[in-house]
Specification:
Distance between the termini: 18 Å
Strand content: under 5%
Radius of gyration: 17 Å
Order of helices and strands: HHHHHH
Number of strands: 0
Largest sheet: none
């Protein structure tokens, strides 16, 4: 289910979606949570059904090493952001700053995986973070910061999952190896 990154895009998209829905209360939040879970499950099932078994297979040791370095740095920065923002009593800044870091991590990954299309989530996630910061800087409510960052980030990652599934499935139909 994690073929070609679809599982990661889908599950992290759900995480951002749940952040966005934290701006709502009661039944609306529950309904939105169910919708997010359904989208995530649908994307993962589509990947399983439509992607060829070879999609997103293993990659060389050097590529895996670079991938691990980039992700390790990303997670380290996320922890630092969470700690610093919590100690500064500014938890509202965690989502926008994390979105920017996650977006930035896609830039070197585009080179590692030789997939320029990974620049798309880079730009969109950085934009999500910058948008959340703009809401905060203009004294917007914390829940609006979460909604803006979470919604843009979720749609970006789910869009990447869908793009991956449809692109790889289309290539397989035409006998093209990605």
């Amino acid at each position: 289910m994690f073929k070609a990154g679809v599982g990661f895009f889908a599950l992290f998209g759900l995480g951002w979606w749940l952040l966005a829905t934290s701006a709502f209360d009661g039944l609306a939040r529950l309904v939105e949570g169910v919708v997010g879970c359904a989208v995530t499950l649908g994307l993962m099932l589509a990947a399983r059904r439509l992607l060829p078994s070879s999609a997103g297979g293993s990659f060389p040791a050097e590529r895996r090493r670079r991938f691990n370095q980039i992700n390790g740095l990303q997670w380290l920065l996320i922890v630092v952001i969470a700690v610093v923002c919590a100690r500064a009593a500014m938890p509202v800044l965690i989502p926008p700053l994390v979105a920017i870091v996650v977006g930035l991590h896609f830039l070197p990954l585009a080179g590692v995986f030789e997939q320029s299309r990974l620049r798309v989530p880079a730009v969109l996630l950085i934009t999500a973070g910058a948008s959340g910061m703009a809401v905060w800087l203009t004294n917007g409510p914390d829940k609006t910061v979460r909604l803006v960052v979470g919604l843009i980030s979720a749609l970006c990652l789910w869009g990447m999952a869908m793009w991956t599934v449809t692109g790889a499935a289309s290539a397989a139909e035409h006998g093209i190896r990605e």
